[in-house]
Prior knowledge:
The chain has helices at 3-13, 18-30, 34-47, 52-64, 68-84, 88-101. It is an all-alpha fold. The chain has one domain (3-101): Tetratricopeptide repeat domain (Serine Threonine Protein Phosphatase 5, Tetratricopeptide repeat). The longest helix is centred in the last third of the chain and has 17 residues, at 68-84.
Amino acid sequence: MTRLDQLQKLAAVQPDDPLIHYGIGLEYANQERWAEALAALEQTLKIDPQYVAAFFQKARAELKLNRRADAVATLTAGVSQAEQRGDRHSADEMRKMLETLT
């Protein structure tokens, strides 16, 4: 059983756990399955709109799907959320990516 299979099994049992959906998103991204990664990361943020790391990964998937405007919006929201939570590292990381897009 692959890591993705294990995470999907966990998600079936614990559908409201954002960490599981985030992990699924990362696994899909590692496989370059960008649409599926995006869906999992959107689910992560639906469950927990303050899950800062998901913003960066979601923007990455959007860029891979040629959805630049969506990535800009995601990063902008992510920087705001990171700053609200006092997560300077994540805010700086997303800000740097955002600067390359605007």
